[in-house]
Write a structure and sequence with these properties.
Elements lengths: L28 H12 L13 H17 L6 H14 L11 H13 L4 H14 L6 H10 L4 H4 L2 H16 L3 H16 L1 E4 L2 E4 L14 E2 L2
Antiparallel strand pairs: 1-2, 2-3
Helix pairs in contact: 1-3, 2-3, 3-9, 4-8, 5-6, 5-8, 6-9, 8-9
Length: about 220
C-alpha cells in the first residue's frame, strides 16, 4: 500500500539538550530507522530506494519540532522515527513537516488538543475514529484501537509524545481513503506505543534500539 503524502505524510530514548550528545544522533538510531522503515516499505517502490540524508534531516527536523513545542531538544526515539519517515516519504526541505511549516503543524496540533477535555480524551476520540473506519484495508485500524485502548498513557501522559500522536492523527485524516488513513495512524501509533498493526502484521519496535552495537530488531506482537 502506498501512503499518500500530499505536498504533503512510547518508544522513549531522550537525549538531553545540555549533554555533548545533544547535537549528535545516538549511533543506534539511524540503523533502527532503516530497520523500521524497511518493514513498513516492504512490497512498495520505496523498498528499493536507498537511504541518503533522511537520518540526518529527520534528526534535525525532530530537534526543531521539539524545540518549537517544548522549548528543548531532548527528543525521543518515536519523534525521530516520525520525522525520518516524513523526510523520506514527503521530503523536509526548509524544515517542512508533511508539506507545512513546523509552526503550522504545531498550531494544528494545539487546535486538535483544544477540541478535547484533555489528552486522554483526545486519544479516546482517535480510537473511536479508528473503529469507525470502514472498507478494504481498514482492519488494522480496529486492531490498533483494541491494542492501544487499554493503556492511553503512552499517547497522553507525556506532552511531547501526545504532540506526536496528535500530529499522526492529523496526517492520517489527510489521507485520501480509509485504508491509507488507517495505515498512517498505524505508523504514528507504532512510534508512540512501540507496538502497532500495519497491514497484516503487528510490529514491535520497543527493543529496536535497546542494545548498543547490536543489529536492530523489529519484533512481532500478537
Amino acid at each position: 500500500m502506498r501512503i499518500w503524502v500530499s505536498v504533503v505524510v512510547g518508544v522513549v530514548f531522550a537525549v538531553g539538550a545540555g549533554s555533548p550528545a545533544a547535537a549528535q544522533i545516538p549511533p543506534e538510531w539511524p540503523a533502527a530507522a532503516r530497520a523500521v522503515l524497511g518493514e513498513l516499505e516492504k512490497g512498495t517502490a520505496m523498498a528499493d530506494r536507498p537511504f541518503k540524508d533522511e537520518s540526518r534531516l529527520g534528526w534535525r527536523l525532530a530537534r526543531k519540532w521539539r524545540l518549537h513545542n517544548n522549548r528543548n531538544v531532548a527528543i525521543e526515539l518515536g519523534e525521530y522515527l516520525g520525522m525520518v519517515t516524513l523526510c523520506r516519504w514527503s521530503g523536509c526541505a526548509k524544515d517542512a513537516v508533511a508539506g507545512r511549516t513546523i509552526a503550522q503543524r504545531a498550531d494544528q496540533v494545539k487546535a486538535e488538543k483544544k477540541k478535547h477535555a484533555d489528552d486522554y480524551a483526545m486519544v479516546d476520540a482517535s480510537l473511536a475514529w479508528l473503529n469507525r473506519l470502514e472498507g478494504p484495508g481498514t482492519e488494522p485500524a480496529r486492531k490498533n484501537a483494541a491494542l492501544w485502548g487499554p493503556d492511553k498513557n503512552p499517547a497522553a501522559a507525556d506532552f511531547a509524545m501526545s504532540n506526536l500522536y496528535a500530529l499522526g492523527w492529523i496526517l492520517a485524516r489527510e489521507q485520501p481513503d480509509p485504508a491509507r488513513q488507517a495505515a498512517m495512524m498505524g505508523i504514528f501509533g507504532l512510534y508512540v506505543y512501540g507496538k502497532g498493526w500495519y497491514g497484516e502484521q503487528c510490529l514491535d519496535i520497543t527493543k529496536v534500539a535497546a542494545v548498543l552495537d547490536a543489529p536492530p530488531t523489529v519484533g512481532r506482537c500478537n
